[in-house]
DNA sequence: TTCCTTAATAAGAATTATTACTAATTATAG
DNA sequence: CTATAATTAGTAATAATTCTTATTAAGGAA
């Protein structure tokens, strides 16, 4: 399946999710979702706004923030846990972790190998009902390492 | 060792770290650090400010933010990865994870049992140089679960 | 001890990210 | 076709954090 087809499939999922929750399928919603879904950059709200503006010059900042929030409620996207001032979004729902570069703030996806499995700490469930688990690895990415040795 | 003694020990560590890095030991630094170190609440900057104000009524918001940042540089405290608008701080340097309640935003420490070990995803190091790893479990804490069934 | 350099602080203004509001307009989905 | 959810534009509010400038005080030197 090409990335184009994969994206279309995700858009279809979004449409269904909207209908299921009595939300209208609007071009803005589609575009904003596609922007997050097609990027591996884990964009922030501003980046999404800038990108969507190319296709829809009239889109408003407000719509982007509102839409990102509703896509999150639909569980079509989620926020990446980070220590940065801006929220970063991810539309890849497969369980995975993130490598966050402390220098350039780039966020990379880390997928586990087939024989690996995310380990939930034994006594985690003693604190309450678990919804999800997030793992971030912080460090300096290869790109930044390369630049600093120049 | 009492918690009082433990706190004093940590303060001594801070003083040494300051000297080592050519940073002055100021009452504000001590107080702000103690406030984070003695709490298990993972306070945000505002909470630290409010608490410190009781002892030092003239302390400024700015000093709290600046000091928290420099304590972080000294590796005496760190930020808890979260999706909340406010940064939360932790002075417990022992490796541990966090349970974050999505309802009340409380942050609980999760320590691994002696036979457990944090698993770093195999291909994490392929992205760059790893500095640290963070695990958050998101869910609804026992307190909130109890309140919602009432 | 006193002096001196300069790091650190206080106070409040400024900035940044995000959210909210208004009212008029658009366009989805039944 | 129609009811109304969603959007736009523009502005305002808010919340978290950072900057600016004058002042203070830590800690080394005399």
List the keywords.
3-stranded mixed beta sheet; 5 helices; two-stranded antiparallel ribbon; alpha+beta; homodimer; 150 residues
Strand order in space, largest sheet of chain A: 4-3-5
Strand composition percent of chain A: 15-25%
Through-space gap between termini of chain A:
40 Å
Helix residue percentage of chain A: 40-55%
Large-scale geometry of chain A: globular
Rounded average pLDDT of chain A: 92
Total number of helical segments of chain A? 5
Largest interface: A-B, 41 and 41 residues
Q: How would you spell out the order of helices and strands of chain A?
A: HHHHEEEEEH
| Multimerization state | homodimer
The major beta sheet of chain A can be summarized as: 3 strands, mixed
Description:
Two copies of one chain form a homodimer. Chain A has 150 residues and is an alpha+beta fold. Chain A contains five helices and five strands; from the N terminus they run ααααβββββα. In chain A, strand 3 and strand 4 (107-110) form a beta hairpin. The longest helix of chain A has 18 residues, at 3-20. The model of chain A has no long low-confidence stretch (mean pLDDT 92). Chains A and B meet through strand 3, strand 5 and helix 5 of A and strand 3, strand 5 and helix 5 of B. Strand 5 of chain A pairs antiparallel with strand 5 (128-141) of chain B. Chain A binds a DNA duplex (30 and 30 nucleotides) through helix 2 and helix 4.
């Amino acid at each position: 399946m090409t990335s184009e087809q994969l994206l279309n499939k995700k858009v279809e999922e979004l449409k269904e999710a909207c209908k299921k929750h009595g939300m209208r399928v609007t071009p803005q919603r589609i575009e904003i979702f596609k922007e997050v879904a097609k990027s591996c950059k884990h964009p922030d709200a501003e980046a999404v706004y800038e990108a969507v503006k190319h296709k829809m010059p009239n889109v408003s900042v407000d719509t982007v923030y509102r839409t990102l929030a509703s896509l999150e409620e639909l569980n079509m996207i989620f926020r990446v846990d980070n220590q940065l001032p801006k929220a970063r979004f991810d539309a890849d729902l497969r369980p995975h972790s993130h490598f966050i570069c402390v220098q350039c703030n780039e966020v990379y996806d880390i997928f586990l190998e087939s024989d690996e499995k995310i380990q939930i700490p034994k006594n985690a469930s003693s604190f309450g009902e678990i919804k999800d688990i997030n793992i971030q690895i912080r460090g300096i990415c290869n790109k930044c390492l390369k630049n600093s040795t120049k």
